[in-house]
Amino acid sequence: MKMTFRWYGDNDPVTLLNIRQIPGMTGIVSAVYDTPPGEVWPQASIDALKKKAEDAGLAFEVVESVPVHEEIKLGGPDAPRLIENYCETLSRLGKAGVKVVCYNFMPVFDWLRSTLDEQHDDGSNGLSYIEEQVLHMNPLDGSLSLPGWDESYGAGELKALMSRWQDKTQEDLWKNFEAFLNKVVPAAEQAGIRMAIHPDDPPWGIFGLPRIITGAGSYRRMMEINDSPANGITLCTGSLGASGENDVAAIADEFAEHIPFVHLRNILRTGDRCFKETAHPSACGSLDMYKIVKTLVRRGFDGYVRPDHGRMIWGEQGRPGYGLYDRALGAAYLTGLFEAAQKEQDV
Ligand code: DNO
Prior knowledge:
This protein is of the alpha/beta class.
């Protein structure tokens, strides 16, 4: 297992030195943020990012994310050209030594929460999701803001985009996903990269948009399209675990050969389609983190792991979900779980 930490670049209040000082940390997970989705990432930007990480004593082997342009998800006329661009970016990342590329195939929006700073009894705050509140949210009124998103749209742009999705079904999205995988998986193989799709977060439809990467059934279908190890998944425990229907340890077991990257975080399910993000330890939420880690270790997992969203603690201000302190505590806890699971197995 290689422990990593997400870093949002020079504008991130968390510095590379902060990351380096977390025990057990080996690398960053990052991206080129100043190239618009759909365009090929300049080799110079990729190389500069790698150099910055390495100068700080950290590896740069995981990209999160190379965003998939909406035209690709919509299967629009420009999709083939944009997929070619995507493949070219993969080839350049491969040249720079990147091993894993995380991406998602969620229409229009990335992850969604109803509250970014729900107050907890202990004075910390964190992200939460209440379906009832989401049903009353209007994605077009400009109030949606999720600072972890890699891209955002202007109000007019968003309205036009949403209307193009109106008649699209899950099957349409699968068809376009298949066309994407057919080109991208061979390109990734050539570049020495394993693709790792992030599950839809939350793993159910929002705002009437189709969502297809929601659990074991989605992964089975995806592997039927192409079962190359380069066609992989990001096992995001918090996203999958938001639905009580997903047994995350069982998913880790079934798809072990297709898991190059894991986001390990806990959530507390507070009702049907309602959850709050908690500290990482099992005792704090609904997920048995040790069981998940033990399953990964038993299946010989040697990929990349990162702590995921943390709460805001100790008065920290920053990008919701992506502060330093709680994620660092999470990393230390997870490193301990892996050590225990590995030693238990070696006995
Ligand atoms: C949220 C993240 C996601 C993830 C993308 C991958 O905090 O896990 O935004 O990076 O869905 O493309």
